[in-house]
Design goal:
By secondary structure, the protein is of the alpha/beta class. It is 31% helix and 20% strand. The protein folds into two domains: 39 residues, no CATH class; 371 residues, Spore Coat Polysaccharide Biosynthesis Protein SpsA, Chain A. The protein has a seven-stranded mixed β-sheet with strand order 4-3-2-9-13-10-18, with helices on both faces. A three-stranded antiparallel β-sheet has the order 1-11-12. Bound molecules: uridine 5'-triphosphate (UTP).
Length: 415
């Protein structure tokens, strides 16, 4: 794309401010900016006029959850099925680590955050250690020592190099690196509140990762699907980077999903309070879905089921087990776009880089929870909150480094 073509593309959509510093750039920088303009899909910006959170919800009704007593009663059976699947390499793990972690406010990838007090305990390390627990159990059950769980890590253009360098430096925290695969997710432009695309430097459009729903498409685009098939992986367990108590490829959960033959299983916790900021599992127009906390109506919040219990009392914790064949079926389907207010580092009017301390514009994200709605069947699977849910979103307060440290202590994890 040359300058004239770039100008025309931007002029049509009212975004020529992107070329504001073009004349001051070196030939190389000019070319880089033109290439980025050529490759960027600006159509996401149109979603701003459709409101903050994407499409309207359909008719919501309760979705039955497999609760703790039922799980306990079948624990041995589910665990055996799950360990056997892991031993036969039918299960892979996918760590979603492409997010920017802006609330935590560290320049490094979130997984590099050290939550240790007396010694280093990095978030990535906690996740690897949790996976190793399962690998040890699978080897013990099979009387082997060569079982590993293929471990995929989704990064973004912004944090990929730092993430890989960190794993290399830490020798993968003892994981077999032959089983670790990195791939990058796609990016989307970020805008101010009027929908004008920001610059992050004079020669670069401000971009941010396009949400965690892009994970399967990005895995496929990275050429990793062949390997998934070759290894015989039938289930992929995706999980958020920031829950340091996350149980990965949990054999009982895997076993329950296989036994129930669902397209997706979702780990859920009982909500702490009706208005807790957590998405709840439900049916929407008869298909599995999630009502996000900001979509919650009073009616949904206080609805009761036949037993007189809150009808929507189980919240998702971003730990899902997807059937690969189901993911392939929905690969070409489009998902709603979420327009999210965020803090976006950008150039100010004087061309100086600023790092705002409050939201200054919009990012565009597709969310993994919307993938659930594309699938025919889902098993919400209850887990004990204090044992499996310690998200780190902020430095202090709710869902923070502080609260996660307390929960780690409660679970006997030395920090
Ligand atoms: P969050 O929604 O908490 O977003 O991500 P975030 O970007 O990490 O944090 P903030 O909002 O900027 O503070 C939930 C999970 O989804 C991943 C994150 O890495 C985290 O594991 N994620 C999020 C992606 O992999 N890609 C994205 O584009 C967004």
């Amino acid at each position: 794309m040359n300058y004239r073509e770039a100008y025309e593309k931007l002029d049509k959509i009212g975004q020529t401010q992107i070329l504001r510093y073009y004349d001051t750039l070196s030939a190389e920088e000019q070319q880089a900016l033109l290439t980025q303009i050529d490759e960027t899909d600006f159509s996401v910006i149109d979603y701003i006029s459709q409101g903050e959170h994407g499409a309207e919800k359909g008719v919501i009704s309760p979705l039955e959850c497999m609760e703790l007593p039922e799980i306990e009663a079948h624990k041995d059976e589910f665990t055996a099925i799950g360990l056997d699947a892991i031993a036969h390499s039918r299960v892979g793990a996918v760590l979603l680590a492409g997010g920017m972690g802006t609330r935590l406010g560290s320049d490094n990838p979130k997984g590099m955050y050290n939550i240790g007090l007396t010694h280093e305990v990095f978030i990535f390390q906690r996740l690897i250690e949790n996976t190793m627990d399962v690998i040890r159990a699978a080897n013990a059950a099979a009387g082997r020592d060569d079982i590993w769980i293929p471990f995929y890590i989704m990064t973004s253009e912004k944090n990929n190099d730092a993430t890989i360098a960190f794993f290399e430096e830490k020798d993968y925290f003892g994981y077999n690196k032959d089983f670790v695969h990195f791939f990058k997710q796609d990016m989307a432009p970020a805008t101010d509140r009027n929908g004008k695309v920001y610059l992050e430097s004079k020669s670069r459009i401000a971009t941010s990762p396009n949400g965690n729903a892009g994970w399967f498409k990005s895995l496929v685009n990275a050429g990793l699907l062949d390997g998934v098939h070759e290894q015989g992986i039938e289930y992929l367990n995706i999980f958020a980077v920031d829950n340091v108590l996350q149980r990965i490829a949990d054999p009982a959960f895997v076993g329950a999903c296989i036994e129930r033959d669902v397209e997706v299983g979702a780990k859920v916790v009982a909500k702490a309070a009706p208005d807790e900021a957590i998405g709840v599992m439900c049916l929407e127009d008869g298909r599995p879905s999630i009502v996000e906390y900001y979509e919650m109506t009073d009616e949904i919040m206080h609805a009761k089921n036949d037993k007189g219990e809150p009808a929507y009392r189980f919240g998702v914790i971003l730990n899902y087990l997807f059937k690969v064949s189901a993911l392939e079926d929905i690969l070409s389907k489009s998902l709603p776009m979420h327009v999210v207010e965020k803090k976006i580092p950008c150039l100010d009017e004087n061309g100086e880089l600023i790092k705002p301390d409050k939201p200054n514009g919009y990012k565009f994200e597709q969310l993994v929870l919307d993938m659930i709605h594309q699938l025919a069947s889902c098993l919400p699977y209850e887990v004990v909150r204090e044992k499996e849910f310690a998200p780190i979103k902020n430095k202090t307060g709710i869902d923070s480094v502080e609260s996660a440290r307390e929960l780690c202590k409660l679970n006997g994890i030395e920090l």
